[in-house]
Amino acid sequence: MTHAAVSCEIIAVGNELLIGDAQDTNTYWLIGQLTGLGGFVRRCVIVRDEFPAIAGALHAGIDAGSRLILLSGGLGPTGDDLTLAAVAAALGRPLVEHAEALSMLTKRYAELAARGWLPSGAMNDARRKMALFPEGAEPIYNPVGGAPAAMLEVGSSTVVCLPGVPAELKGIFTESMAPLLNRLFGSATYAMHTVIVNCQDESLMASELQGVVDRHPRVYIKSRARRFGPEIAIRVSLSTTGPDGGVVDSVLGAAERDLAEAMARLGLTCTPAAD
Questions:
Q1: Is the dihedral of CA 242, 213, 3, 136 positive or negative?
Q2: Residue 272: its H or E element
Q3: What does each C-alpha distance from 127 to 98, 111, 188, 216 come to in angstroms?
Q4: Which of 6, 139, 195, 210 sits CB 3.0–4.6 Å from 101 for a disulfide?
Q5: CA dist list (Å): 148 to 28, 85, 166, 213
Q6: Eight-class DSSP state of 55
Q7: Sign of the CA dihedral with 35 first, then 5, 42, and 138 last
């Protein structure tokens, strides 16, 4: 993995994730999106709906110098939705009502009521709660649901708090966060090549494979053997990020050629994977 890649962390917030009541699909999806943008996801954690847990994970990411820190969950109207309050407390910032966030919520609830999806679009204390942001944070429009996301800069880190509802999280990330993501990642590119090595025993190729790994430190190389058998072959994936597609293709191509030569020394062949 190249050191030029934007370092990212994901903090999933929710008691329901830690008692097995809900599955954290958001983190898996976000990893794929960030990696595809050329980012380097250095850590992911799941924490409870508790101030110390959220604050500890956030400070760890900031102290590590992660460029982008995404928190998911805990932005709703109920009492256990306390992510924004925890972030504000962790950073020593007051929690204040954000006028633009309140306007977004007011319009959204009026729209939902007009469609007949809610009995009333009037703002109440629970709905206004979702407009309470850490001082200095800015709202990011939620094109799917109610609660807007919140973005704030903390030193060299950009912190974004996203709703936990998967459809809302995905809508904000793919639509409303596009300008931010373009600023952070630019034209960076990620790619993976997968080859099949006609070998039934991963240990036979381990030494030569390690040599390829050592010679190509910018490429993440991983072999995968799930079981033994005469019909089994070893899948080897090679992946990297770079400033653009041309650099990525060149780096991966060199590593793939080296791998083929290394396996040939063992009497093995490599072929591109069909999928």
A1: positive
A2: strand 270-272
A3: 13, 14, 39, 53
A4: 139
A5: 22, 15, 14, 44
A6: H
A7: negative
Residues 6+ apart with CB under 8 A from 3: none
pTM, two decimals, is 0.84
The first and second tokens of residue 2, run together, are: 């190249």
Q: What's the pLDDT at 227?
A: 57
Let me know if 185 is exposed, middle or buried by CB neighbors in 10 A (0-12, 13-18, 19+): buried
Rounded CA separation 217/203 (Å): 21
- 3-state SS class at 88: helix
85 CB-near residues (< 8 Å, 6+ apart): 51, 95, 132
Residue appearing with tokens 């030193």 = 155
Comparing CA positions, the residue from 266, 249, 275, 254 lying closest to residue 197 is 266
CA distance 136 to 134: 6
User: Which among 139, 157, 180, 173 has a CA at the least distance from the CA of 58?
Assistant: 157
Residue type, 80: D
Strands, E, within 168-233: which ranges?
A: 189-197, 220-224
Backbone Cα Rg of the chain: 23
What is the C-alpha to C-alpha distance for residues 30 and 166, in angstroms, rounded to an integer? 10
pLDDT value of residue 228 = 57
Predicted pLDDT of residue 225: 75
Distance, in Å, from the CA atom of 60 to the CA atom of 81, rounded to the nearest integer, reads: 21
pLDDT tens by residue, 211-237: 999 999 999 999 987 655 566 789 999
